[in-house]
UniProtKB/TrEMBL annotation:
Pfam families: LacI, Peripla_BP_3
Lineage: Bacteria, Pseudomonadati, Bacteroidota, Bacteroidia, Bacteroidales
GO molecular function: DNA-binding transcription factor activity; transcription cis-regulatory region binding
Protein name as it appears in the record: LacI family transcriptional regulator
Domain HTH lacI-type intervals: 6-60
Keywords tagged on the record: DNA-binding, Transcription, Transcription regulation
PANTHER family registered for this protein in UniProt: HTH-TYPE TRANSCRIPTIONAL REGULATOR GALS (PTHR30146:SF109), LACI-RELATED TRANSCRIPTIONAL REPRESSOR (PTHR30146)
Amino acid sequence: MKQHRVSLKDLAAQLGVSIATVSRALRNSHEVGEELRERVQKLAKELNYRPNPFAQSLRSEAPKVIGVVVPNLVTHYYSAVLDGIEDYASQEGYSVMAINSHEDYLKEEKAINNFINMHVEGIIACLSQDTTDYSHFEAIHKMGIPLVFFARTCMPELFSQVVANGDEAAQQATEHLIKTGSRRVAFLGGPNHLDMVKRRKHGYLEALKANKIPIDRDIIVCGKINFAQAQQQTIRLLKKENRPDAILAFNDIITYAAFTAVKSLGLRIPEDVAIIGFTDTEASEYVTPKLSTIEDQSHKTGTLACELLMRVIKGDTKRYHEVVPMKLMIRESSAKIKESKQS
């Protein structure tokens, strides 16, 4: 059963005193006797009461604020999603406060607790790559705080979410690599527990199966989303005797790490190693060769996530699972031969 956020009114009702008395007791005011102060503070702790700083400081015009937690705010994808959230929130009269978890579970958990303490109207979140414990989100659900996930998600039975069709996009990209001459396509992914990684890897494997290409687990590498580590993993793969002749990379960090690794070994793109990466940055058109990419509609993802959150805030109890289609952009880095010759 859902629990609402405990208010001063709730505490006052249980104790049989006025709201003003409860407020003074929680501030350790000398106007309230010690015995009553202790009773008030004990009950507040038992009921997990959180003071609302906005209501305290701006009681006449409390701002309507939503919180957003992202794993890596400096990347183009997350900043574009945030831009979409802000656009929609502004239309609805809300302000947005964003916190960067830096791909760290503890920082994500702290961000959620900070938002609870701020009494935000709702939260939009994307899991950090380290998150495998979802208890802080379960607490959000029990408190009845509206929350919507995007991109990397969990607990769809409790929360609405907005994701991309990464499985279909990965399958389409892998099919393109195969049709243009590649036969040993490597997959460079993030942590296996992330639903986003699972979807993209599934699409990659389906393309191999459909084209009767044996699955080689040695060229499927899923680890930390870290530029240096991804670069070293790519170099290790490319130094193998039977090295990959193409790479499908999970996100922009891993894509550019792989691109840099290929170049560092003096290999040619795409003649020696073709590359397609999931990325949503304009830089793909400004590298040499121009990078083939699978692009998120990140701004649309943000606006849709915010739209769903507003529905929940307004009382909609339905659980939504929205899928935003991705776009395969073929440039110079992926085709060993013209696709038309294979058709």
